[in-house]
Amino acid sequence: MKTKIFLFLIACFTAVSINVQAQSNKEKKSNKEEVTFDVSMTCQNCQKKIEKNIAFEKGVSDMNVDLPAKTVMIVYNPAKTNVGKLQEAIEKLGYTATVHNKVENAKK
Question: Which CATH class is domain 32-103?
């Protein structure tokens, strides 16, 4: 009987801790922002150069480079970086970058 009660308590504790951890992960994911830049890139080498370098900027969690539209969409953590720093990083690579749009609390 004691064993059954003990196992029941362990199962309850495990279920509660899993639920708390899942809620914590949701809060972390909602702390992302998204910005899209219009960038003066002209070829696939430009695209590769941006993908290679910007992906490793501090706070960047996802990005998409669209060569035909000449845009770069970046999902980032605002606690680690900001739009100005990301724009500066693109410009350091030799391209002009202007903010196309900015979305807070990106769902990625």
Answer: alpha beta
**With the CA atoms of 24, 27, 29 and 33 taken in that order, what torsion angle do they form, in degrees rounded to the nearest 10?**
-160
- Domain segments of the chain: what residues? 1-30, 32-103
Tell me the whole-structure pTM to 2 decimals: 0.66
Q: What are the residues whose beta carbons fall under 8 Å from the beta carbon of 96, sequence distance 6 or more?
A: 39, 40
Task: Provide the CB-side half-sphere exposure for 104 (13 A, CA).
Answer: 2
- Cβ neighbours of 74 (radius 10 Å): 27
Q: What is the pLDDT of residues 27-82, one digit of tens each?
A: 555 689 999 999 999 999 999 999 999 999 999 999 999 999 999 999 999 999 99
